[in-house]
Amino acid sequence: MPYRVLVVEDERPARANIVRLLASEPRFEIVGEAVNGIEALRKLDALRPDLVILDVQIPAIDGFEVLEAAGCEREFAVIFSTAHDAYALRAFDAHAVDYLLKPYDRERFRRALDKACAQLSAHPRTLTDLTDLARQVSAERTRDRIVIKTEDGWLALPFEALLRVSAAGKYVVVYTTSGQHVVRDSLAALADRVDPNRFVRVHRSDIVRVDAVARLEPAEHGDGVLVLADGTTATLSRTYRKHFLTKFRPR
């Protein structure tokens, strides 16, 4: 059976070129195409490809955000196809199959596919190293959103819209300015993907956006009650009180 390929590329000519080059490769079969990062995540869920040819600079969310959101449990190989070489060496260190710099010819593309075949046949695919790279890249940039998988699908949520994240058993509830979303993930995992300068743990079950807190009210046993901009409340445990107060600026 040929290896299943998802092509993630927003530029029509570049995408058509990849499709054309793959057409003469019986070892591979294109099962889908995506033109932005959210569509890529949806098709990763639906198609479960063996190989993803991934542009870094794509709309909605970029290629590294796609990998970070996909998580380590996903199993597919990755060939980066991009006009930007900033992360090439680190991508190789993180076990990307290859890093194609546009424009590239048929021979260069075939060498990348040869490497993909070798990697796919040699051992099970794992995204652990590439997911770590994606998190490092995200940490180096100014974060302004988080990508979550809700009951209705993938969502890129701007930090300005995020008020609070609360643990609820095997799930977390994400409270936003427009409503709530239930996400099958851990509070710790989401804490790693928000800006630590803007979001703080206030309880073992809650993280809040500091500038979304309207006021702090006293409670028993050294705890506090945080009243958020939407009128909802969260408990400020005395365990986290000192750290929270280093970030909080009363209005």
List the helices and strands and how they pair.
Elements: E1 3-8, H1 12-23, E2 28-34, H2 37-47, E3 51-54, H3 63-70, E4 77-82, H4 88-93, E5 98-101, H5 106-122, H6 128-140, E6 145-150, E7 153-158, E8 162-168, E9 171-176, E10 179-183, H7 187-191, E11 199-203, E12 206-209, E13 213-218, E14 224-228, E15 233-236, H8 238-247
Parallel strand pairs: 1-2, 1-3, 3-4, 4-5
Antiparallel strand pairs: 6-7, 8-9, 8-12, 9-10, 11-12, 13-14, 14-15
Helix pairs in contact: 2-3, 3-6
Spell out the key features of this protein.
Rossmann fold, 5-stranded antiparallel sheet, single chain, 5-stranded parallel sheet, 251 residues, 8 helices, OB fold (Dihydrolipoamide Acetyltransferase, E2P), alpha/beta
